[in-house]
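Title: Prediction job returns without error message
Component: structure pipeline
Severity: low
Priority: P3
Assignee: unassigned

Description:
Job completed but the reporter wants confirmation the result is attached to the right record. Sequence as submitted:
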Amino acid sequence: MEMLAKIKISIIGGGGVVGSSSAYRIAQDGKASEIVLVDTQRNLSEAHALDIEQAITQRGTTRVYAGEIKDTHKSDVIIIAASGPHRTSQSSRAEFLPQNLTLAMNLVGELLSYSPSALWLFATVPVDPIVYLAHQTFSLPRQKVIGINQNDSFRFRWAISKILSVPSTEIEAFVLGEHGLTQVLIFSNIQVNGKKISLNQEQMERITAMAMAFLPQWRKWQPGRTAGWTTAESIGGIVSSIISDDGRIWTCSTPLGGEYGLQQVSLGVPVRISSKGVKEIIELNLDPNEKERLKASAQTIQEQIKQGQLLLERNGRP
């Protein structure tokens, strides 16, 4: 059996849909040595930990257990999947900012003392302003703060595969910008089997409609949960790249320092990730329309960041 990497992963919100799904996905890989699930509902994290550890008996020997904040001590990776009560009335993820920002910042403040060198993965929405404000508030190195928005690129590739009738595994395509309504589907860089392709207007319109229909459809169904499996697949793949340094490209929200002509903002861009965090931000050659839309998306996020800063000031956090 492959030797386990001595990697400790803590999942905050480990009793929830995203947290527990991510724990199972990571444990299935069998690369991490231990996963600790922390949740305000300890009974849920205990139940998931037992279930997951028993489920992987034929796959690996990752230790999975429930714990408290103090049990995250010396974590290599901390995944923030905690959220306020899930509601289906929101028209955008940005509307979760008031309830989730303070929660996320309080968690980072407490967790940081136990694991000052950890990599941070944020799944809590709205992920882009939360990533930037965590980086800014706690002076976390920008390469060590990663927001999960690979989901958007998964949905884009899924829609492309449906319209073109090609396997999604043969498609490389990216969604940049906000993990939200202003996300930018990059049609100028789609590849199928490593070859760049061009789509006609009708195809692009159909793909856009399919990819962007996710949130409205989810609200219509009112499932009472978020899209845990898609997020878990994103988190599991990213954690695998952190452990193995496999060079795979992921679309993640990360603070920018001039890349794509943008700064003082965090948004989704293609990156390569290693045990040290984001090691490369890949700058795609965008067409003029995509550049303008990405700039507009960044401005939307910057407004959310300003709102977040005001919220934190009112709560006494500089």
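Comment from assignee: result matches the submitted record. The longest helix spans residues 288-314.
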